[in-house]
Amino acid sequence: MARAMALTGVLATAGVLIATAMGPVHAGGTHQGDPISAAFPDIDVPVGGTAIDPLGPSLWSTKGPATYTGAKVSYELNGVAGVSIAPSDIGGGDCDQPSATRVVCTDPRPLSFEGETIEQYLPVVVKAAKTAEAGDTGTVTITFSAKGVEAFTGTSKVRVVEGEERLPVTGSAAGTIGGLGLLLLGAGTAGVLIARRRRARFTA
Q1: All domains of the chain in start order, with CATH
Q2: pLDDT in tens, 176-187
Q3: What is the pTM assigned to this prediction?
């Protein structure tokens, strides 16, 4: 028991250090639905660059394993100058882009839930021009629908940050994170025996 508690403390400390080094994670809104719930993450985009991650809803079934067809996700960006959205090449859907601030994606494949959360479903890429102003914030209205699922809507915030604030970490900070990563890797096997985390999968 003492050994397990000590290991848990090491993992918690390492996790705090990594979170501090990488900066805050921005949470978005959620939709508690039936039969599907969703989370809508917020995102930072650097001036003159592209957000590190694509923007898309995380979906999970409230009915257990299930499969749906005719899934559709639409995005509408408002309230921020110099920022645009575009279909992502990792989503695997069929997307139309009526404008630089609107994208509509449909999925020709069945959408299957097997107990896990599907993250960044049919996502878009967020970019900011060099003319964008750091500190400006806009919203992306995201609407999901499928056959047998009533359409629901959520919003994600898009915050424009300084060009280097959220770029990949290099130098001494990268060395610190690398060392912490090795610590977590070494403790990972034992950690799995202590706690079981929810599994997530990406669609392709």
Answers
A1: 25-166 (2.60.40.10)
A2: 434 434 433 444
A3: 0.69
